[in-house]
What we know:
Pfam family, one: DUF7824
Strand content: under 5%
InterPro entries: DUF7824, DUF7825
Domain DUF7825: 686-798
Number of helices: 47
Number of strands: 2
Protein name: Secreted protein
Radius of gyration: 35 Å
Amino acid sequence: MSSLVAAVRAxxxxxxxxxxxxxxxxxxxxCFPELRALRKELRADQWSSQSRRAYPALxxxxxxxxxxxxxxxxxxxxxxxxxxxxxxxxxxxLLGDRSPAxxxxxxxxxxxxxxxxxxxxxxxxxxxxxxxCPVPTTEAYVHGWAxxxxxxxxxxGTLLDRLRKDPHLATLTAALFETEDIGGRLSWPATEGxxxxxxxxxxxxxxxxxxxxxxxxxxxxxxxxxxxxADQRFxxxxxxxxxLTRDEEHAHIADWLALAGDAxxxxxxxxxxxxxxxxxDGRLSTRRLAEMSGAVLFRPEKKxxxxxxxxxxxxxTRDPGTADELLPVVAQAFExxxxxxxxxALKLVERHLRKAATAEAREEVAALAGRLIPTLRKxxxxxxxxxxxxxxxxxxxxxxxxxxxxxxxxxAPESAVELAEEVNVLLAADGDVAAFERALDGLxxxxxxxxxxxxxxxxPVVAGRWWSKDDPARHxxxxxxFTRQGLVGAAHGLELLMATLLGKVSTTALHRAVRLGxxxxxxxxxxxxxxxxxxxxxxxxxxxxxxxPLPFLLSTPTWSTGLLEPDDLVxxxxxxxxxxxxxxxxxxxxxxxxxRRADRAAAGAAARRAVALGTVEGARLAAWLGGDAVxxxxxxxxxxxxxxxxxxxxxxxxxxxxAAFRPLGEPVSVYKNRWYCFHGGDSMxxxxxxxxxxxxxxxxxxxxxxxxSTAMDDTRGEAVILPLLAESEGEAGEAVxxxxxYGLGAxxxxxxxxxxxxxxxxxxxxxxxxxxxxxxxGQLIRRGAVKPSRLVESIRTAVDTGAYGTVWAIxxxxxxxxxxxxxxxxxxxxxxxxxxxxxxxxxAECAERTGVREExxxxxxxxxxxxxxxxxxxxxxxxGALEGTAA
Length: 887
């Protein structure tokens, strides 16, 4: 028994297998407790060379020394063991003497585990051969089979050859259509030809190895079920490879109808083409065509809608008797959001209306004409006999989302156990400012009240942290880790405090960090003053934890935005005086930056109470509150490699605050603060806003370069902070509006959505300068920094909420800049902006909804151009709406 464990510990796998072969079942079982104890020992330091050497032998021995299938399956798939597993062949050899029924049960348990456990397919397939059981069709087994068969290209032969030889081909192929997230695996080794999955399966179906009818039905059913894009793309390609006959297509009419209405665009387009062919061959009834059209005409993809209108026109031309049933369906497109689609539908109705035999059909079409845009509605009144528009339209009322309100922070958790749970959650996933500040204040309070109880509660939280264990072989210690790297996030700051509580960071290192700060590199970026100020409070609080713990934090905000009410700060300073506690300079500086000063009456009253405290900090707070309102730095626009802003110096931050906070008052320069850095995480940015909650213009200036990259360099995530920026306090000036403008033109949808949310929040709070934002957008489009197609999507998001007046106020400044370029293009000196037609269409919709009447520079010249292009038609539509001639 001891010799087996010794061989396992030494990592001698061959010797372990030899010893196990000579043992009885009872002797193997007797060894298992020692093996389990060894596993626990190795898990405590699983990355050491000794552990890595021992794990394969331990994996093999633990598998052989258990009798229950459930225990063996759990051991084989254990996360700590599978990083250094023994080969599947060794496991199969060790398990070969078990009964077929036992092996079948083991196969079932292994195959039912999630694919993420990465149980080797070779092991499961080998056990299937030994047991003679039916092949599993679980997600893990099918994923493993697909990867195994598709990845054997290096052994020669094609995928088709390997599939032909598979004894379980029919069963596992049928299971492919029931398995989720399989499309990515099936795109290897090729996407076309007989060495692709789609080509190989189509060939096997033609040869009769697979039942064609069942395989086609399974493929269609999989498309109906939906799923990830990769799955849809693969199964559509497979279906197209089968080259269905007209009879096969006809057998699935109900499926095509469902796909045309609800499937993703590529799948819907294929279903539409199949149904169109059937319709033109006379194999699709008029009722079915009407059903199909009713679903497709409400899809947002204009290409699908236009194709459907073309199909309806051909169907009516081929059989005029269908006009009564199909023309009301065509008229449903009158309420499509795209005016070009509306016009196409109206032309189609006008062309075929005389073919309608019943008055009911003509009346239904005329009734739907009321949903057309005003220009087309007037035309429909003349051509279709629809009711004319009312002379006095209803007054427009802007719809904006309610302005978000900040939430008051709850007190820190009263029990150490509850606090530890909240800290653990924050370490796993960065929370918002409120949750973080509560936890931070809670750590300080409980460390002061009962350090032993806090350490006991935090024990399970820190157990998995590498710095909680002493390892003489480690090349660097916790002092180096925390002080040289600096703080890279809020969660890292919480780790610093916990490591300090455990005595893992020396007081000397903390004192040095308080005095000198911590470096994160020699290159300067615009974020460094923010990161340094954010970290200064942590270093000083950590130092005080090891020397003179604070009773609580002065700087904990009152509100979720980071604002601190002056009365709360005065009360905390009074409690410090009562306790005789020594104030932390960094904590007090952060409190000053957060205290509300914009409310001059409340600030003045609080200043008088602060003076009455008779303390140095009370006097400093009174002077801070009694001074001028929040100073706004001089902001000037500049053109470097992109359109950015620079700020002047903020003297009060430079002169009053401690050294770590003084860089906050330095000017922002696009030439000096231009380096890319690692400070971009969303968890950091939200805390920068809470660092200076009444100075969002200043923070926006330092964030602007990163936000501009979402539009100019196609980066992701930098603009997600924009809604929080809009919810903050302080001036919303050049930097804030330029940041929103860049976000509206961002490459990725989540950034554009965040920018649209910020726009609406600013509008709802009455802080949006629409003229400024519209002008910024025009200049950015002209410079090529923002693509109009991306802006269209962002602006459409705002319009869909009902903010027609807000969007019009923006576009009335953007469009003249672009229309001026269009006028220049007419004379051959410049090219018109791509996407201008879509922006004109949205502007026209806004003008029609709001009833605005004004003259837009350069618009009349665009509307007078020859031709019927979309740009010209939308310019005429907007011109008519603004002139009032459309009504």
